[in-house]
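Dear support,

I submitted the protein below through the web form. The confirmation email said the job was done, but the results page showed an empty box. After a refresh the structure appeared. I'm attaching both so you can tell me whether what I see now is the final result or a partial one.
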Amino acid sequence: MYSDDTIAAISTPPGRGGIGVVRLSGAASLEITTAIFHPKSEAQLQTPNRAHFGRLIDPATGETVDEVILTSFRSPHSYTGEDVVEISCHGSPIILGRVLQLAIDRGARIAEPGEFTFRAFLNKRIDLAQAQAVRDVINAQTQYQAQVATRQLDGALSIRMTPLKGTLVEVIVHLESSVEFVEEDISPQTTSMLLTKLQSVIDSLSTIADSFSFGRYLREGFDLAIVGRPNVGKSSVFNRLIGSDRAIVTELPGTTRDALYESTAISGVPVRLIDTAGIRETTDLVESIGITRSRAAIADADISLLVLDGSEPLTGDDIKLLNHLSEGGRIVAVNKTDLEARFAVASIPAGVSEVIGISALTGEGFESLTAKIFEHLAGDAATERDDVMLTDARQHAAIRKSIEQLVDASEMMNQRELEEIVLLRLRGSLAALGEITGETLTEDILGQIFSTFCIGK
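What the results page shows now:
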């Protein structure tokens, strides 16, 4: 992807706005913009990190394209590490397109997706983990997603990895010295010390890797199916969770005939709620089709929220649903706590560890319910919201690969294998960690990563 030419792109989202930005990066950035920009004052455009107000002129016609603010940043003190110019003009797509075309006519090239950030990575302004965090910040849908991505952008993951890689390098150097001076065998005490260091690295990496079980939900979201027999208040629970009357609610059983989908967020984690048809035995053809689709939605959901009616005794259909849903993917809520209770918790079959009382009418218990959903997703990570969290599958795979190599190396050291063989595993582990920050990735993989970015970033 990389070349040393000058690139340009519109860096603000498509559509109309008060301001739009065209960004250039490369050695000819200032030369290109000087040819089309006429400042109002006599200030030198070569002065970096200053905003200049003026007019953008089409040299071919002498026509004023727009009044703009031009800001320049000189290498290496810029986002990409190259000379960068940003032209802020009125946010009309027509004007932005014309400004971009003026830059292209004078030698710039339209940037590929993610090419500005790719250049920042190649020029060592950021590492690969930080570069991917740029994309995650842009794509964030909730404040919590943005917080996690911003920590990554600040280098939290890279900082956490640095001492671990340092310890691994120490072990490698020690073993390489032993190979260099073959007459010096490693003593049992030294072997024990090296194994302790490796175990410390394994434990730390395992903690980071375990965070991905929740991190993937934070980045990609999860599906939560609201299930139960007819008329227990599933649609009312659905509406309460999304904060609007999206689903039709009546006192008639079977009102919901098909699965209804809506996106929202729970504790900062994106979620797709699924209001399913009431599940029961029926001879109604349309209702049967809806129930079949509901069962498919339940099978695909990450969590099933089973709603029971606290104003009625537990029924056979309730028991069947409790037995059908796996304990690991199930949360049980007793609805209608605002009515007289006719529901005995003791009547719930064994295996249901916790039941949450809620009222879809008054909102009672929903804070506890959303906390339970978050706890169900996050597990141990629920109490570590400020810690480093893996949200990227590629990074997770690299850490798992590194751990596997370290475990093999430790076992070989215990079995007194040749140092040369142990070193192969240790170097493989170090290379896997290098994939996270981009030190050991191939050009093809880098191209795949940055192709997921938006143009202009």
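Response: this is the final, complete result; the empty box was a page-load delay. Residues 252-257 have pLDDT under 50 and may be disordered.
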